[in-house]
Amino acid sequence: MKALTFPCVSDSSQSFVSFLSTKLLLGLEPEQILQLVKDLSELLNNQQKENLLEYLTTHMRLSHLESLRLTSRLHSTCIPLSDCYDFVKWLPPELVLRIFSYLPWDALIACSMVNRAWFRAARHPELYRRLCQLPEWCPPLLDKQLFPFSYAVDTEAVPSTGQSSDSIASLLINSRNASVDWFGIFQKRSRLRRNWLLGRHRMRRFTGHNEAVYCVAYDAHRIVSGSADATIRVWNVRTNANWSVQTLRGHSDAVRCLQLLPLDDDSGTSSTSTPSSPDCCSSPTSPTLLSIWQPPEALLISGSADTTIKLWRLSTTVKWSRIACTSTLQGHTDAVRCLQADQQKVLSGSYDCTVRMWDLKTSMLRCTFRGHTAGVICLTYDENLLYSGSLDNTVRVWCLSSEACLFTLYRSVLSSSSTQFWLTPVSSLHLDRLRGRLLIAHHDGIILTWPLPSHSQLVDAYAQAVNGERASFPWQPVAVYLTEHFDTSGVCSGTVVRCIDGDTWHIVCGSDDKTLKVWRADNDQLVNVLQGHEDGITCVLVTSSVLISGSYDKSVLLYDFDIT
Asked: Which CATH number is correct for 87-155+178-193, 2.60.40.420, 3.30.499.10, 3.10.50.40, 1.20.1280.50?
């Protein structure tokens, strides 16, 4: 490499240059130094300029040289004073989509306000399709309630998020043909979340029961409530009427738990295969016909203090409605306190200290889970495990396939007195699948959390239960003492928490202080306290757009957050 020399410069000039580099340049900004170099280059001859250029180019990376070479060609057709350096305009659409796909939702909204080109890029359907399918923006079991049933059919034509990054071009082609308004879907979800945080809602009250309301169910067309007056009432939420449209009579004692499932037109069986709600409330299911006056047929499962479980078929048309009790499940020897079902089975808990599994199609008893020493008042389950809470202040974790009790969850207390365990029974359970935890509510207002076991922990617990010192029944579960508390700062000390439910965004509990506490599920912060009941709250059901609760005041309240 040739040295940068100045043949026409004398020794005194060399000293002057050294002075500039050590004294004067130290106080200059980079822009001022660049301007000084430009001014001094005017004093150089051609040979010196070539030496200077060679010196600069050897210290530049190849990408900068290529950019310098293409600059004149890239901007040859640019209009003076125009925004010709906007990469969104001259980059290929595939690359622009890739760049924007790394932005969060709030940054996309900001980008859409830059100019028209950025607006079109930031509103691309593929960006919002991916956002809607993220866990924090994809409420389970609720999208089909929020949007038309055709939404589920249309989304099958849209590529899944599991595709590789090399298929961006195919995503563009497919997304152009998609009829789903993904931005509108995301906009509605964003509005719902904002309304939840701000507490903006519209409240409706349904009255008609003669005694306390113990349980509620919901499927986007109707609310079903069970009461201590031994009746089940069906309310049409698509109309402004606050009175029941159907009354089911068949139980001889209080109705303590309900589950509402959709029916297939051909088979007459439920079309959902996963559990949808814990305790006495059932989560919404997708309708097959969005009609105000003719909701789809549904299967209603009810459990009562008369020890029976009944299956009801609900049918409604414009001119008539029909209710038929299709089957009665008998086997419990005490009041049925909780149940949960899917298309294949029904799980029920009773004051007889057992949990029973029934075949939904044949109405036959499959198996019985025994181990609790007091009544079972709440349960929930997933694909492999059953979780049951009891008045003996324990939660038992069962293997559904082998009926083995793998874990027994105890509440840690300061004293080892057994009476202290008895005074704080479990009142409700909520399975937070997204965050892998089980929330356990107690009568004294304490809510504990238990992280769901990993596969290796399940294998070890099963081996200990089956191959322990007492391999025969009863199984020997692993004892776990709970110490991790959920944030219950909004619950008054000693207040009885009777129900807890949640979705992907929120955790809600109802208590005897007549209020509903709403926490954010991602950070467990209390965001709202809802009022409206005149007595203690017995049951609660949470969806992404509505919250439904029943109370000792004989009424059902619907809090609708889907308002503009």
From this structure: 1.20.1280.50
Q: Which residue in this structure is represented by tokens 């994809």?
A: 138
Architecture per CATH, 194-560: 7 Propeller (2.130)
Residue 465's SS3 state is helix
* Closest by CA position to 394, among listed 442, 352, 347: 442
Task: Output the tens digit of pLDDT for each of the chain's 564 residues.
Answer: 444 444 444 444 455 455 555 556 677 788 888 888 888 888 888 888 888 888 877 777 666 666 666 666 666 666 665 556 678 887 888 989 999 999 988 899 999 998 888 999 999 999 988 888 887 776 544 434 333 322 232 333 333 333 333 344 444 444 444 578 888 888 888 888 889 888 899 999 999 999 999 999 998 788 999 999 999 999 888 776 777 778 899 999 999 999 999 876 544 444 444 444 444 554 444 444 344 456 778 899 999 999 999 999 987 665 556 778 899 999 999 999 999 999 999 999 999 999 999 999 999 999 999 999 999 999 999 999 999 999 998 999 999 988 889 999 988 765 555 444 445 789 999 999 888 999 999 888 888 899 998 888 888 887 776 665 444 444 567 777 666 666 655 555 567 889 999 988 889 999 999 999 999 888 888 888 999 999 999 999 998 889 999 999 999 999 999 888
Q: Judge residue 503's burial from the number of C-beta atoms within 10 Å of its C-beta, 0-12 exposed, 13-18 middle, 19 or more buried.
A: buried
- HSE-up (13 A, CA, CB side) for residue 82: 9
- Distance between CA atoms of residues 270 and 263, nearest Å: 5
CA pair distance 232, 186, nearest whole angstrom? 36
Q: What is the model's pTM? A: 0.71
Query: Does residue 515 contact residue 499 with C-beta atoms inside 8 Å?
Result: no
Domain boundaries, the chain: 16-62, 87-155+178-193, 194-560
Compute the distance between CA of residue 302 and CA of residue 389 in angstroms, rounded to an integer. Answer: 19
Q: How far apart are CA 252 and CA 171, in angstroms?
A: 58
